[in-house]
């Protein structure tokens, strides 16, 4: 399993939110380029960047910063937040990012997302589904986690058999350092064994990483545990691979 250290950005600042709540922000650094350099020094090969301003607005806000970071790092970057059009995706891929994350658009306009998969290929796009558990069902939220879609994860993912990269965040655990939802990741891969699953939300200890690896997840996105110095990137890389 690959460790994907994460940087969430508001106005160019590296932050973390608790359960996606903008009123519960922790700020860590004003220098995302230095953070990426630290990730690379720790042995990471990839990183996950989120434009929280764009996610909340539903339109690009920090994608120029993403382009600059892509030009100045050797890490493979996966970027998210506010992408809605093929032009926005193309601009990021042209700038050198590895993958672009699409979330709300896939729920609002399945045909548009399918067209993007056809245009760019399934290796360059990641479908992000953010879920809240409701009576045992994983219900998908949208628009920066603020709106419920009324649809289950299985229903949404079943629409897109071409998807290769899937990012699933358990909103209740994100930024809470409460441990990942291993059960839901296992369930997803039992139902959709051919996706490369990125597990997000709750990683707090090094022991959480092998537990996720056993589920078959391809990547673990880790943000707050690294920023809060629960463990180093180098330690995380080693345990994710064990």
Give a short account of the largest sheet.
8 strands, parallel, barrel
Q: What Rg do the Cα atoms give?
A: 16 Å
- Determine the number of helices (DSSP H or I, runs of at least 4 residues): 11
Regions with pLDDT < 50 over 5+ consecutive residues?
A: none
CATH superfamily (homologous) name: Aldolase class I
Strand order of the largest sheet: 1-4-5-6-7-10-11-12
**CATH topology (level 3) name:** TIM Barrel
Top CATH class: Alpha Beta
Order of helices and strands: EEEHEHHEHEHHEEEHEHEHEHH
Q: What is the tally of beta strands?
A: 12
Helix content bin: 25-40%
The helix/strand class is alpha/beta
Overall description:
With 242 residues, the protein is of the alpha/beta class. The chain has one domain (2-241): Alpha-Beta Barrel (TIM Barrel), CATH 3.20.20.70. It is built from eleven helices and twelve strands. The protein has an eight-stranded parallel β-barrel, surrounded by seven helices. Strand 1 and strand 2 form a beta hairpin. Helix 9 runs parallel beside helix 11 (233-241). It starts with a strand and ends with a helix. The mean pLDDT is 91.
List the helices and strands and how they pair.
Blueprint: E1 2-10, E2 13-18, E3 21-29, H1 32-41, E4 46-51, H2 52-57, H3 63-72, E5 76-80, H4 86-95, E6 99-102, H5 104-108, H6 110-120, E7 125-134, E8 137-142, E9 147-152, H7 153-158, E10 165-170, H8 182-191, E11 196-200, H9 208-215, E12 219-222, H10 224-227, H11 233-241
Parallel strand pairs: 1-4, 1-12, 4-5, 5-6, 6-7, 7-10, 10-11, 11-12
Antiparallel strand pairs: 1-2, 2-3, 7-8, 8-9
Helix pairs in contact: 9-11
